[in-house]
Amino acid sequence: MTRTRTGVWFVGARGNVATTAIAGARGIARGTTDETGMVTAREPCTLLDLPAVSEFVFGGHDIADRPLIHTATELSDSNIVDRETLEIVSDDLREIDDRIETGTAQNCGSAVSLADGDTLDSNHTVSEIVEQIRSDYSDFVAETGVDRLVVVNLASSEPPVTDPDRYETLAAFEEAVEADDADLPASSLYAYAALDDGHPYVNFTPSTGSDLGGLRELAETKNVPHAGRDAKTGETLLKSALGPMFAGRNLDVLSWDGFNILGNGDGKVLEDDENKAGKLQSKGGVLSNILGSNMHNRVRIDYTPSLGDWKTAWDHVHFRGFMGTTMSLQFTWQGADSTLAAPLVLDLVRLVAYADDHDEGGVQTHLSSFFKEPMDVSEHDLSRQFAMLESYVNDHLDTDDREPLTPLRTDGAGSDSDTSESDSAPGTEPKR
C-alpha cells in the first residue's frame, strides 16, 4: 500500500476539541493511546483503506493566541489528556502551534471573545479575508508536502444566518463576497476557500458552514466532499437511540425535557441567545423528526464555569402507555466534551479523505450518524443512520471484489482488535 500524509486544518485549532484531537492523534502515532471511541477503528470501517491517523499533519486557524501546550496541560489537569501522552507529544504540540494562523471572527456574534488575540477582520474586506484563508491553506500544503488537505470547523457556534436564501447560488455567494457582505459568517468563508480549492470540508459545529445553496453548488461543481452539521456526541446521541424505541413500541411520548450544563469556552459562548439559537435548533429537531412535532420538546443549555470541559445532561421523558397509564424515564449523561468529540473528528477526516480519494464529491450523506442535523438526510434514527454507513462500506467492498461484511453490531462484538495504523493507509494515489 502507498502511505500518504493527510493534512488536517482545524478552524478553532487552539480550542479544547482540536487540542484533544491533535494530542490523541499524536498519541496514537507514538503508541501512548489507542483508538477507543473511533468509529473507524471497528467494523465496518476497518474494512476500508482509510488514511492513517499516525500520518495526519496538523495546522489551523484561530483568533486566540494561547499555545496548544497550555490548553493541553489544562485538559490533562482535568483528566482529558492523559499525562503520559502529554509528555510524549509536547514537542509535537509546539511544532504544530507554529502552523496555526490568525483567523477571522466575521459575523460570529458578540459572545466570541476577541481578547485573547487578533483577527483578520479589522483591516480586511471579506474578499481579502477569503484570499488570506486560501493562501494559508495553500502555503500549508506546500510547506508540509501533504497529499491532501481536509478542513474541519471546530470553532465556537455562530448565530444562524438570517436570510440564507440570499446565497442560494454560487454566483450570489461570490457576489456577496465581492460586495463585502457583513452577513456572511466565518464558517462559510472557510468553507468557500476550502471547496473552491478542492479541499474537503467538515462542519463539526451548528454554524452554517457549507450548508448554503451556493456552497453546495460549488462542492458539486468541483466534485469536493463535504459534511455536517453539529456533531452528535452526548445527550442527542442518546435521544437518537432511545427515541426510536418509544416510537417502535407505540408508546406516546407526552414531553421530553433536557437540561444541559457545561463549563468550557463553548458553554460560555452559548450563554448568548444569538449563538445558542442554532444549537437549540439542532438538538431539538432530532426528537421532532422521530416522535412528531406535537409533543412538548424543550432543551436548555446553561454555562457552569466550575465544570470545565465536563458536561452533564439530565433528561425527563414523560410517556403514556396502554389504557392511558402515564410513566416516566429519567437519565443523566455525564461526559468530557472533548473526549467524546475528538475521536469523531479523526473519524470524519479519515472518511471524507477516503471519499475524496474516490472522487465522491458533494454532501456525504452516509456520515449522518455523526451529526445532529445531517445535511440532506431527514432520518434521525441512529440505527438506521449506522446502516447507511454500513451500506456505503458494502458498496465499496463489492466494487473492490472483497467479501461484504455481516450486518453491523453495536454491542462491541466483532470489532476489529487490530487497530495498527501501519496497515490502514490508502492503496491508491490521492488527488490533490
Automatic annotation (TrEMBL):
Descriptive protein name: Myo-inositol-1-phosphate synthase
Q: Which species is this record about?
A: Halogeometricum borinquense (strain ATCC 700274 / DSM 11551 / JCM 10706 / KCTC 4070 / PR3)
A biological process from GO: inositol biosynthetic process
Q: Which residues form the Myo-inositol-1-phosphate synthase GAPDH-like domain?
A: 234-338
Q: Which residues form a coiled coil?
A: none
Q: Which GO terms describe its molecular function?
A: inositol-3-phosphate synthase activity
The record's family statement is: Belongs to the myo-inositol 1-phosphate synthase family.
Q: Where is this region: Disordered?
A: 397-432
SUPFAM superfamilies, alphabetically?
Glyceraldehyde-3-phosphate dehydrogenase-like, C-terminal domain, NAD(P)-binding Rossmann-fold domains
